[in-house]
Amino acid sequence: MRALRLAAEDLRLWSGSDLISAATFRAGLDEAKRSLSAPDKALVAVFAGRTQAGLTAYLAALELGHAVLLKEDHTGDTRRSLLDAYQPEFVVEGDEATVGDEATVLPGYRVHGSMLGRRVLIRSSPSGGGLHPQLALVMTTSGSSGRAKTVRLSYGNVSANARSIVGALGLEGRDVGITSLPTDYSFGLSIVNSHLVAGAGLVLSTVGPSSQRFWRLFDRTGVTNFGTVPIGWRIMRQLDWQAGHHPSLRLAYHAGGALEAELVEYFGRMMAAADGGFCSMYGATEATARMTCLPPDLLLDHVGSVGRAIPGGRIRLAGDAGAVGEIVYEGPNVMMGYARSRRDLSGGDDLGGVLHTGDLGRLDDGMLYVVGRKDRQVKLYGKRIQLDQIERRLSGIGPAAAVQAGSDTAVVFVEGDTDRFRDAWLATLRALGVPAESLLLRSVPSLPRTHSGKVDLDRLRSSALGG
Asked: Do both 83 and 171 map to the same domain?
């Protein structure tokens, strides 16, 4: 039942800048397995994040044949909605819980023990249904925040994706990765899984690349590769980050949304000058994580592409050959299906390894270019228009996000003064052939973002409608 095959005796794991010995890690893993032991398959909610306790609880649960629900945001509303919907048998709490404080125990649970200083709770009454034997992970999607909708992933999904990423990025035992993203985000967890499967080292960091603490830790531990989402790369560009200041770095990559072509080229050339490489990748929680990779040696010849399918996967378009169509991914990492409640966790494989992504793309010489979302197409004054296309036209000036605000109206939110966007906005109106009253320009101090760094379109849509 194990999703990840680990050689614990060779494990190189850092908690911050402290190297954890393999013997210490194994002792913690054994402690966690004792705390999570149960006669039947159980769901384990882990709120301990990117810590030694969080990683140990995750791996112990998988070794025991349990399923895991990961959430780093362990605040009241988020935690409560997930616990109510999925009724996990065990809860490994975050650092806000005091081991000996019985007064703060979650309703419906009692203290069962502790592991690595984190309190372990057990459910006081039976859960509302069984779990599918192959269920390994219950993951919230990047756009679902604390809502109950999740993705059901099998042991096979997790293992296949980890091995494919090892192959796509050429990860080896000599490499060292770092937790640059939350582990309840599929891209962030994929970084963890791929390094563990490769036998590479892993640094547990609770801060991201926008922090100087991250880079001091990066250099002290000799990290060789890391990835982050587009907002992270934009911030690093603003901070004038330089790859050459980090001698151990050989590979960097982005996923989790579109990164502007000029930034892909900028960081691609920077990494090449530092004898390293930069990769563009594309993925979805529904495919466990990443689905494609554009390797460094092809990057500058195909800027704007996300490359080809990872090993074991296949990309095709639904529609006429040569035209823009819905991106369809096939592979062993495609989810079993969605879930909204505990009773859904007993379900089997609903997709059969085929994922209709909802993204629109085109193929050019076998390279995939993502051009937008099916559900981001609107009709303004009789013309069908992709909101993603509007955003791309303005993104060269600064961050921009477009949402529909009525039957014939869209609003483009931009960061800062609208005056600097006005020429690009007027050019967009002319190119689309729509009047100014159909495409409104509105300024915000900063675009709201989800936990994974993506623009929170629901909040912008509510604002556009006056909510």
From this structure: yes
Three-state DSSP state, 90: strand
Length of the chain: 467
| pTM over 0.90, yes/no | no
| Spatial contact of 209 and 228, defined as CB atoms under 8 Å apart | yes
Return the closest-CA partner of residue 276 out of 309, 251, 305, 300: 251
Q: What is the DSSP string of 232-270?
A: HHHHHHHTT--GGG-TT--EEEE-SS---HHHHHHHHHH
Residue 464: how many CB atoms within 10 A of its CB?
21
Please give the distance of CA 448 from its chain centroid, rounded to a whole number: 17
Euclidean distance between the first and final Cα of the chain, in Å? 47
Where helices occur in 147-238 by DSSP H, the ranges are 155-169, 186-198, 212-221, 230-238
> Which residues form the domain of 341?
1-210+313-371
Judgement on whether residues 340 and 457 belong to the same structural domain of the protein = no
Alpha-carbon distance 34 to 106, whole Å? 21
Can you tell me the distance from the alpha carbon of 151 to that of 162, in angstroms, rounded to the nearest whole number?
Answer: 17
Tokens encoding 443 = 């300024």
pLDDT digits (tens, 9 = 90+) for 172-196: 999 999 999 999 999 999 999 999 9
Task: Round to whole Å and give the CA distance between 264 and 344.
Answer: 40
Residue by residue, DSSP assigns 330-396 as ESTTS-SEEESSGGGGG---SSTTEEEEEEEEEEETTEEEEEEEGGGEEEETTEEEEHHHHHHHHHT
Identity (one letter) of the amino acid at 103?
A: A
Q: What is the DSSP code (8-state) at residue 123? A: E
Buried b vs exposed e over 409-432: b needs ≥16 C-beta within 10 Å? ebbbbbbeeeeebeebbeebbeeb
Does 319 lie in the same domain as 408?
no
**435 & 347 share domain:** no
* Nearest C-alpha neighbor of 290 from the set 365, 360, 355: 355
Q: For residue 57, how many other CB atoms are within 10 A of its CB?
A: 31
Tens digit of each residue's pLDDT (9 = 90 or more) over 228-283: 998 899 899 999 999 999 999 999 999 988 888 999 999 999 999 999 999 999 99
Pairwise CA distance, residues 435 & 381, whole Å = 8
Q: How many domains does the chain have?
A: 2
